[in-house]
Design goal:
Layout lengths: L2 E8 L6 H17 L4 E3 L12 H4 L6 H13 L2 E9 L5 E9 L2 E6 L15 E2 L6 E4 L2 E5 L8 H9 L4 E6 L7 H16 L2 E6 L17 E3 L5 E4 L5 E8 H10 L4
């Protein structure tokens, strides 16, 4: 059984990848100073929604990803962050990069945010593969924001052995949206019978239909209990993932 110290670095990004990388790097260092071995950053860490995503998109060997790799290597931890990479069809992929000692994985968001008046699929091409990786004897699955509304993805990650699922997000604000976020993060943890670390953009006042963030990053247990949660403001959530809890839940409630 393994204990893994994790953190969610809740911040607000703008339209400039260079300044966003500096803010992300600083947040990762502060999380590592608090003992984190895996740090999640939000969806759209490279640049916020509402930006010309194709203009700022970078390949996975571009300067933004390279900067994340450097801070992860310097600190000896894993960093998970959302960025945009060119898709080749005039759109971009909404991609998570996971990088650190012995870890190099990427996940392209499968379920695009075509809801509440937003049309993510106009500018973003969907992925089609589930992704997980192993770090310090913990199997970690990846998902992004709107994926939370699709229970089957999380059950499938649980069946693949994920003991922790990291979910970077930039959740859209609006009536009832905080309650939906809280409900879905807890439900998807229970569906996967895994710890779920959700890292959102800090609250940003709505501007049109672009999802800019509500905060409320959280760590949820495999039974759907909230172990820790931030409020709306920028900050660092710290917690411990205990894989013995996963094994116990799955043996007592064998739904997978």
């Amino acid at each position: 059984m393994t204990d893994l110290r994790v953190a969610a670095a809740q911040l607000t990004t703008g339209s400039d990848p260079v300044s966003n990388l500096a803010a992300a790097t600083d947040a990762v260092r502060r999380a590592a100073d608090g003992g984190a071995e895996l740090v999640a950053l939000p969806e759209a860490t490279l640049a916020c929604f509402g930006t010309d995503l194709l203009a700022v998109a970078q390949p996975l060997d571009g300067p933004f990803a390279t900067g994340l790799r450097k801070v992860a290597a310097d600190l000896g931890i894993v960093v998970v962050a959302g960025l945009f990479e060119p898709s080749g069809d005039g759109r971009v992929h909404n991609t998570l990069l996971a990088t650190g000692p012995g870890v190099e994985a990427s996940y392209r968001k499968i379920h695009l945010y075509d809801a509440f008046g937003s049309r993510e699929s106009d500018t973003v091409a969907p992925g089609n593969e589930l992704v997980s990786f192993s770090y310090r004897d913990v199997t970690v699955g990846l998902a992004t924001c709107y994926d939370l509304r699709f229970a089957d993805q999380f059950s499938a990650l649980g069946r693949l052995g994920a003991e922790l699922i990291v979910v970077p997000a930039s959740w859209g604000a609006g009536p009832g949206k905080e309650e939906q976020w809280d409900l879905l993060t807890r439900a998807r943890a229970a569906d996967a019978q895994a710890w779920l670390l959700a890292c959102g953009q800090a609250y940003t006042a709505p501007q049109g239909t672009d999802p800019l963030g509500i905060g409320r990053s959280s760590l949820t247990t495999p039974l759907g209990h909230t172990a820790a949660r931030l409020d709306h403001s920028a900050g660092i959530l710290q917690g411990t993932v205990d894989t013995a809890v996963v094994e116990g839940v799955r043996s007592r409630v064998p739904i997978l």
